[in-house]
Amino acid sequence: MNEPSPARFQGFRKSLSTKERLERFLACVYFKAFSDVESYLFTPREVAVLKPYERLRYALNLLKVPGKEVEARKMLSSELHAQGYHVADFLSTLPTRNLAEPDVDFATMLLPKIEEYPRDLRSALLLIFLAAEGLYTNPQGDNAVYGAGLAVNGLEITQQRPEYAEFFTRLNALNVRGLILTSPQEVELDIVDGAVRNIGFADGLQVLHEYAEAQLLMRTPFAPHSHAQFQHVTEILIGAELHECASNYASRVARLIQNWVGAHEAVGFAAIASEQAKIAGVDSYGKDLHWGTLLALTSPAQAREILEKTLEKRLAEQGDPLDFSPWSSDELEALLALAQVQGNLAEESGSNDELDTAWERLIKARDIALINKDHHGAVDAMNTLADIFAPQGRKEELIAEIQRTLPSARIAARETSHGIKLIQHLGIFKGEMGNPDWFEFLEEANALSTRPLEKFSTQLAFARIYAKHERLDDALQSIARAYQIACENHDPRRASLALEMGSRYAQMLGDPKRGLSLLEQVFDIPDLPQNLVSYFATMLSDRYADIGNAEKARFWKQKATAT
To answer: 438: exposed, middle or buried (C-beta count within 10 Å: 0-12, 13-18, 19+)?
Structure first.
């Protein structure tokens, strides 16, 4: 694909009015599309054609464009003084970063200043804009409420005053954003659509996005429709030929959906982000990594193709990772995804060469994570290694690699279950290989467990090794503890799983009567799902048939078919 240059916009630019060009400039700045923004920069002569407030807004947003800060600062100061803003001298003393990206602290500092300009409403309104923007950056607590209150006060002052029409439009946008941030469940979509028609292209896109995002995060009744709203904004940007904007926006949405809905639902936006970056002629490396990482869950073969191509140079690095540039967290996550996909595909195909490559890459990912002090990444690499290669019989090698990662597992265990899972793996593999210290590692995992699922899985691990060592009574005591944990947390599926495992161990170790008793205990579990009722009744019917008890076999078969 040929990489288009910014010149592709020249004909499009000429077909736009000055106002429309300004709106696209503002949109590019909002989406941090600094390649797209180059096509919408104004010359000094073009700036002079803008209305007075538009010139100020252009200058304030130009502050956010890398390399334009000095020019923008000079333009802002000149315009404020030329237009007679009383606040000009005060704003000239403030750091550029605060004017470009106001935050809550900056907004708090500005609030008392608003009252200092009773004779210059424009100065007060400009401070309101900056303060509200700052408060909205962290809408927690009362921040968004204060920001919305500022917007409402401004609207009341400027309403039906034509000389402040542009200020009124901007205040309206801030007010709608305030409503969305403070009470998203009370804002109807038609209110948002109505506002968007009156507040300009750039502010409108921001409002549409924030509305969809707020509904998603607050899980309101509109939340299921957020995806369509995100798609709508993306299509608007693509339709306006703002391809870098579309890429950055789709990437942002992909991560949002990944975190709040799931990776499967995020893949489409990650694909758009990658595609639009290429159309815009900007670097797509990070977006390709994210797309490939998400695809690992839905399209493994395609994920491998994309990630191997994207990581080609990094994969070619041989030797000590310290001899090369540091790996980013996205690169490490992509390497983990690639190795896992490769291992899973190799298991299906039976390719030993592919399995060896997956092993090498997971070890490489672990080593890089340790260098980066990314304890969670190191643990994830080892858990993946264990999941793929334990069935291959490489437990001695796994024990050695896991022990090298044990300090990271202990650190990670303080925050997530992944560290505990790795310590469980170590205890299980040692127990299965006959190493006498297996017990201390499962005891450690149990001591570190704070969540019910962690405690449950650790007890099942104990039961597994006790059964391996033919210690049925000890195994069933661990099963009983796992069962109790599940019942106390109203988890009928895990409660039934514990009893099923106990029954299998009893059957395996020569006590089928206890095994049958454990299976029958399943039916004492409250709220057991109907599919499990049928499953366990069928299992009991088969077990009784195997030992020649036709009456009980018939009873349980009838129970299975009755559901």
So the answer is: buried
